């Protein structure tokens, strides 16, 4: 019976390592670390599985009627409550997972010249998800 538990634990650890290998590289901007990507089914699934580890998750989509498609190369600027830029980056895919200190932030994103801005409060105890959607 114990060998079954060992095999199950080894398989679970192997699956977790495989998922981690599918994630894009962690990037840093000062004290802030983030992941950006989600291109392709495997990486998209890995990003979705990692979302619970980050207090802020951004998703970028374009919509045409009832259809939605994921977007990449979306410039993002995050400012703290004092108006200081804490992150300025471009998304490498439809998801950005961002580890920010607790606080109030303004997140701006642009796609094809159209900008959107959302104010949000981030805390380690409550994950915030924000979808930015543009008409195509």
Topology diagram in text:
Layout: H1 2-22, E1 27-29, E2 32-37, H2 41-50, E3 56-64, E4 67-70, E5 75-80, E6 85-90, E7 95-99, E8 103-111, E9 114-122, E10 128-135
Parallel strand pairs: 3-10
Antiparallel strand pairs: 1-2, 2-7, 3-4, 3-7, 5-6, 5-8, 8-9
3D architecture notes:
- Residues 1-18 have low confidence and may be disordered.
- By secondary structure, the protein is of the alpha+beta class.
- It has helices spanning 2-22, 41-50; strands at residues 27-29, 32-37, 56-64, 67-70, 75-80, 85-90, 95-99, 103-111, 114-122, 128-135.
- The strands form two sheets. Strands 1, 2, 3, 4, 7 and 10 form a six-stranded mixed sheet that branches. A four-stranded antiparallel sheet has the order 6-5-8-9, with no helix packed on it.
- It contains two helices and ten strands.
- Strand 5 and strand 6 (85-90) form a beta hairpin.
Helix content: 10-25%
Structural class: alpha+beta
Helix and strand succession?
A: HEEHEEEEEEEE
Biggest sheet layout: 6 strands, mixed
Q: How many DSSP-defined strands?
A: 10
Offer a quick outline of the entry:
This protein is of the alpha+beta class and 136 residues long. It is 23% helix and 48% strand.
Looking at this protein, list some descriptive labels.
4-stranded antiparallel sheet; alpha+beta; 136 residues; 6-stranded mixed sheet; 23% helix
């Amino acid at each position: 019976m114990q060998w079954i538990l060992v095999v199950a634990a080894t398989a679970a650890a192997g699956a977790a390592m495989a998922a981690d290998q599918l994630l894009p590289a962690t990037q840093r901007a000062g004290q802030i670390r983030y992941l950006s990507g989600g291109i392709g089914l495997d990486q998209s699934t890995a990003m979705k599985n990692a979302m619970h580890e980050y207090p802020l998750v951004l998703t970028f989509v374009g919509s045409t009627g009832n259809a939605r498609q994921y977007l990449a190369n979306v410039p993002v600027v995050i400012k703290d409550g004092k108006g200081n830029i804490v992150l300025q980056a471009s998304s490498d895919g439809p998801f950005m997972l961002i580890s920010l200190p607790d606080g109030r932030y303004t997140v701006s994103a642009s796609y094809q010249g159209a900008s959107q801005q959302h104010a949000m409060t981030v805390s380690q105890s409550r994950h915030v998800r924000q979808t930015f959607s543009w008409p195509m």
